[in-house]
């Protein structure tokens, strides 16, 4: 089971800024270990965000995204008390969803 | 008249562009660090550490919540900025990580020697780093105030000072070769002068830290180990008296400086 994400969502005016920190190795498949063997690729492929259950963002990620990625975006019309959910799915099929409340 | 004011406007714009082009490398790195600060992955390790502290683990199935970090059993806030210190129960000066090792053995029944021999970044050492990250974060912004009341604490300071200046190895290096003068750097990394108080959040006050370049979270023990690696010395033991003595020397020198740990590094 993957480690939890850290999600912060702050409302300002008619939008909310969401900051997400994900815990993931993000192996590109280009690196070799101490024995010279290729470290198999393992990275987040799909990311989506929801506001009160409605999808507001989807993205396709690749091996160029850094380890422990940080994602920031704004949602129009989000206000304090709304629920923001973020889901990722990686190349091994592992998935993780976390939720935060807009403050 | 109107033309003249246009000209002066252009001049002003030109000056501004010139000023930004002359931004020093150090300033650019500062900007880069500031950008990274919001979203420091150390947060992830912090959350993991807090979880581990309250989790029943080891053969004794106990939490670390009764661990005495120097301010009484279970007191975490403010403990970090007073370590390393003398502990009566173990009759030795201990830093945060060696103290955690003691607690993991006495409270949870884990094998301290085995953990100390585990390479950094593997198995139980990862948990150790996460715990150190969380405990340091609980004292974020507080000022270092190490005790020098006990005779052993004063001895450790003197030993640490001697180790800091001790030259050796194939490069004839000492800690002081890099950290003994003001305004030195390696490539673009500023080197703090650790023979005196380097100021808030610099040197001893900036570890544990997340290293962006390798995506690893490092505690002070690993940072000191890496200094010795760069000097081509044999690795000091994890939680050894030598590393703790260096910690006392650096910590006492940082007296009154605020801790920013867990920090983020290049």
What does this structure look like?
The complex is a heterodimer of chains A (103) and B (266). With 103 residues, chain A is mainly beta. Chain A has a single domain (6-101), classed as Immunoglobulins (Immunoglobulin-like, Sandwich). Chain A contains no helices and seven strands. In chain A, the strands form two sheets. Chain A has a four-stranded antiparallel beta sheet, with no helix packed on it. Chain A is elongated and about 55 Å long. Chain B has 266 residues and is mainly alpha-helical. Chain B has one domain: Cytochrome c-like domain (Cytochrome Bc1 Complex, Chain D, domain 2). Helices cover 45% and strands 8% of the residues of chain B. Chain B has helices at residues 2-21, 25-37, 42-53, 96-106, 112-117, 123-137, 151-165, 175-179, 220-230, 241-253, and strands spanning 85-87, 92-94, 184-186, 189-191, 209-211, 216-218, 263-265. A three-stranded mixed beta sheet of chain B has the order 6-5-7. In chain B, strands 1-2 form a two-stranded antiparallel ribbon. A two-stranded antiparallel sheet of chain B has the order 3-4. In chain B, strand 5 (209-211) and strand 6 (216-218) form a beta hairpin. Chain B is globular. The model of chain B is unreliable at 1-20 (pLDDT under 50).
Please provide a brief summary of the model.
By secondary structure, chain A is mainly β. In chain A, 0% of the residues lie in helices and 50% in strands. The model of chain A has no long low-confidence stretch (mean pLDDT 91).
């Amino acid at each position: 089971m993957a480690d939890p994400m850290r999600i912060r969502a702050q409302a300002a005016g008619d939008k909310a800024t969401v900051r997400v920190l994900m815990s993931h190795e993000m192996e590109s498949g280009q690196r070799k270990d101490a024995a010279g063997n290729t470290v198999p690729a393992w990275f987040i492929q799909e990311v989506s965000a929801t506001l009160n259950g409605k999808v507001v963002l989807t993205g396709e990620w690749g091996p160029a995204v850094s380890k422990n990625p940080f994602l920031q975006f704004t949602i129009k019309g989000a206000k304090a008390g709304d629920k923001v959910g973020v889901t990722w799915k990686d190349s091994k099929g592992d998935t993780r969803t976390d939720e935060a409340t807009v403050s | 008249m109107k033309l003249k004011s246009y000209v002066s406007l252009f001049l002003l714009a030109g000056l501004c562009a010139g000023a930004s082009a002359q931004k020093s490398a150090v300033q650019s790195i500062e900007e880069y660090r500031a950008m990274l600060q919001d979203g420091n992955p150390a947060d992830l390790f912090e959350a993991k550490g807090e979880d581990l502290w309250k989790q029943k683990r080891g053969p004794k199935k106990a939490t670390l919540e009764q661990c005495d970090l120097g301010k009484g059993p279970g007191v975490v806030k403010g403990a970090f900025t007073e370590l390393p210190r003398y502990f009566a129960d173990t009759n030795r000066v201990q830093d945060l990580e060696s103290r955690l090792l003691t607690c993991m053995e006495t409270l949870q029944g884990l094998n301290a020697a085995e953990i100390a021999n585990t390479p950094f970044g593997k198995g139980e050492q990862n948990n150790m780093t996460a715990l150190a990250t969380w405990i340091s974060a609980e004292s974020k912004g507080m000022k270092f105030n190490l005790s020098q009341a006990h005779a052993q604490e004063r001895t450790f300071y003197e030993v640490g000072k001697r180790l800091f200046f001790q030259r050796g190895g194939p490069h004839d290096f000492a800690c002081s070769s890099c950290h003994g003068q003001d305004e030195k750097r390696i490539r673009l990394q500023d080197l703090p002068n650790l023979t005196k108080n380097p100021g808030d959040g610099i040197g001893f006050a900036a570890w544990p830290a997340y290293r962006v370049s390798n995506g690893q979270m490092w505690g002070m023990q690993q940072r000191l180990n890496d200094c010795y690696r760069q000097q081509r010395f044999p690795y000091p033991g994890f939680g050894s008296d030598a590393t703790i003595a260096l910690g006392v020397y650096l910590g006492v020198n940082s007296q009154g400086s605020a801790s920013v740990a867990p920090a983020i590094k290049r």
